[in-house]
Amino acid sequence: MFVRRSFRGRGFGRQLLEQLERRARDVGIHTLRLETGWMLEDALSLYRAAGYIEIPLYSEYIGSPYSLCMEKRFAP
Prior knowledge:
The chain is an alpha+beta fold. The protein has two helices and three strands.
């Protein structure tokens, strides 16, 4: 997911994330995980505000000096 800098701050990222979460819940997905860069402050602020928490690096991100993985769980 990416929002161009000139469009940031207008809530588009939050809207996209909310739609993704809603669709996930609608099909029975109870956990969402993501990878982002630790230096992407806007993205990290968005994910943290939405309730995502940091988790250990997984899959191909293990050992990456640039990656940060996060997760959000929903009630079943």
